[in-house]
Inverse folding.
């Protein structure tokens, strides 16, 4: 029972006082920013990265992971009570969750989403523990050609599964790859695109990019739209769920968990797509689909389970292949690099305590979230009543201080401001910033593997199609592109995203 | 300009072409090497070319496909928010954390339509106290607390 042995190692690491504390801090903070609309996990993790310098790597990763899945829980609270997605993956929860709240069933909706999330989180954690080792085993045999093709596949899959224009998204990836090149070339020592600025010789910091594109741009766009909030606080006190409600929601939870676990593994899929897919499935399967949009409990239970399962399993490609499937995972790569851990299949063998500790702490974090969140709901509701005009200057301040503290330089603060303007422009032009961040993180790795593969093949580009694993991955990438261009599938994809 | 039917795609395309062309132009100074021995200029040139191609595709397609117009709201939030960050960057090293924080918070608060002087100043002072306690003392942030003349 290697699995049990491994999980025991994990428990030994995760149940130390220090790591429990950081897991707790992470999920608490995650819930906080999940509850608050206008700040998501990407800028928060970016903001806290500098703080984690001083921590041992396991504790740092445990805390950052906690922020991510904590945000999934917090986001649903806002979706149900305010009809605003506190976090992008809870967009779908707004539809029926808010309607339940209007009918005085806010407590029921909150309880079922927490329970569904916990069931999904538990299942997804077991899935990671079971599937990560064999996957990593395969990945260890990869050469540079396989890695390059894998990254191509990952990036293509990330944009195919996301919403919006495909051409634009691929453009954003390429732009990200180019930005990743800025700095000193490892092979020749040449400074590329650094414009003679010494601060750029180490490259652009990904915290700078993430904070500008996601943090600043989001604040500006929020300020442009005047929104009204109506908070339902009255009937929150009765969190008790009747057995009948649970029985009604349970099949939806199971299906949501399955959908989320499967889609989460795919790059770009992750939490948001899982929630959409689950909602569509529940609506199709329901005996009376007219209840959907008017407070159907399955419409909350399914997507909430799906987004949590998806959030959890999106760690699989990161931990086994070293390839981040979404923007948050891209930041986790950054966090690992800060602690000089090269993400990839070797982490499991070279650093088993970190690997299994992180996985077990995810389950513990999920448990904490259920136990803590339901009683703490009153605090979150109060927090929701803090007006945005008081909130965003504070977010802005923490972003500035966070960016400054990375290299103790104001240059990074100015650079973040530039990325803020760029991010605003991207929003106006409907260019998704997430693929850019993925490309940015993968850029240097991709170039390195391309160079190595071509060096080994003496300049013969057919190496990518003559090596079987590499060929399969490239074929899958092409297949995905063809699928999306096919009109019928394109139509369903658009429909799935317009359900909300 | 009525011949642009899809402004968002068109200008995104122009943006890609600009970035791609600039990337190629700069990369021409770097040795490209051969496919078997790639120099530092090889990958950036290839990426730049792909980006220009995608930009052209987007922009040309935008002359044919219909699309919504770009929704420009008041430029105030953009200018004020970015301005406040720049002010923080300029002010922090000479004037210290406290003054820079107050400036950032008060200036950025002005971006909201519900701006009130009194509220902004009070919240800026609370945040300044918090940053000094949490970041300067708690996390040993390498930034002076007070202005250069009061150190």
């Amino acid at each position: 029972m290697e699995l049990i042995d491994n999980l025991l190692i994990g428990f030994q690491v995760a149940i130390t006082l220090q790591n429990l504390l950081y897991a707790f801090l992470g999920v608490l903070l995650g819930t906080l920013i999940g509850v608050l609309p206008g700040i998501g996990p990407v800028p928060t993790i970016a903001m806290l990265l500098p703080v984690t310098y001083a921590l041992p790597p396991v504790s740092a990763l445990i805390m950052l992971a906690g922020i991510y899945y904590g945000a999934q829980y917090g986001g649903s609270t806002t979706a149900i009570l305010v009809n605003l997605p506190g976090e992008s993956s809870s967009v779908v929860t707004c539809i029926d969750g808010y309607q339940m709240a209007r009918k005085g069933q806010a407590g029921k909706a909150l309880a079922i989403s927490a329970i569904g999330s916990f069931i999904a989180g538990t299942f997804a954690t077991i899935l990671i523990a079971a599937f990560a080792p064999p996957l990593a085993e395969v990945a260890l045999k990869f050469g540079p050609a396989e890695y390059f093709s894998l990254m191509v596949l990952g990036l293509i899959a990330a944009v195919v599964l996301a919403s919006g224009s495909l051409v634009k998204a691929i453009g954003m990836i390429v732009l990200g790859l180019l930005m990743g090149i800025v700095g000193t070339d490892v092979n020749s020592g040449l400074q590329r695109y650094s414009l003679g600025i010494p601060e750029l010789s180490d490259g652009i910091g990904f915290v700078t990019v993430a904070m500008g594109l996601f943090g600043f741009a989001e604040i500006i766009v929020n300020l442009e739209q005047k929104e009204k909030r109506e908070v339902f606080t009255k009937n929150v006190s009765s969190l008790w769920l009747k057995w009948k409600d649970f029985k009604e929601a349970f099949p939806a939870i199971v299906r949501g968990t399955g959908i989320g676990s499967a889609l989460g593994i795919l790059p770009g899929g992750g939490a948001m797509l899982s929630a959409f897919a689950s909602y569509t499935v529940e609506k199709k399967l329901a005996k009376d689909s007219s209840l959907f949009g008017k407070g159907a409990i399955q419409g909350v239970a399914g997507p909430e389970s799906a987004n949590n399962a998806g959030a959890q399993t999106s760690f699989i490609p990161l931990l086994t292949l070293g390839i981040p499937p979404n923007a948050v995972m891209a930041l986790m790569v950054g966090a690992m690099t800060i602690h000089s851990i090269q993400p990839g299949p070797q982490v499991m063998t070279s650093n088993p305590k970190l690997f299994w500790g992180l996985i077990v702490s995810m389950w513990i974090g999920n448990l904490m979230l259920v136990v803590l969140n339901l009683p703490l709901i009153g605090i979150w509701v109060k927090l929701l009543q803090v007006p945005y005009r008081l909130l965003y200057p504070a977010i802005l301040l923490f972003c500035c201080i966070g960016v400054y503290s990375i290299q103790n330089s104001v240059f990074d603060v100015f650079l973040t401001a530039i990325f803020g303007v760029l991010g605003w422009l991207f929003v106006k032009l409907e260019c998704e910033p997430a693929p850019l961040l993925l490309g940015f993180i993968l850029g240097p790795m991709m170039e390195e593997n391309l160079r190595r593969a071509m060096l080994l093949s003496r300049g013969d580009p057919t190496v990518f199609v003559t090596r079987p694993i590499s060929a399969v991955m490239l074929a899958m990438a092409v297949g995905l592109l063809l699928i999306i261009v096919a009109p019928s599938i394109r139509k369903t994809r658009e429909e799935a995203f317009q359900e909300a | 300009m009525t011949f642009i039917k899809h402004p968002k795609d068109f200008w995104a395309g122009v943006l890609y072409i600009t970035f791609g062309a600039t990337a190629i132009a700069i990369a021409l100074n770097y040795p490209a090497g051969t496919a078997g021995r790639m120099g530092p200029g090889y990958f950036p040139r290839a990426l730049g070319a792909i980006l220009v191609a995608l930009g052209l595709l987007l922009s040309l397609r935008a002359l044919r496909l219909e699309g919504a117009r770009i929704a420009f709201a008041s430029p105030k939030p953009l200018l004020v928010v970015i301005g406040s960050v720049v002010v923080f960057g300029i002010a922090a090293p000479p004037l210290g954390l406290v003054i820079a924080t107050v400036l950032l918070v008060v200036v950025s608060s002005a971006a909201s339509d519900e701006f009130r002087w009194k509220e902004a100043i009070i919240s800026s002072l609370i945040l300044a106290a918090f940053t000094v306690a949490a970041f300067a003392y708690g996390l040993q942030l390498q930034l002076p607390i007070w202005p250069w003349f009061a150190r």
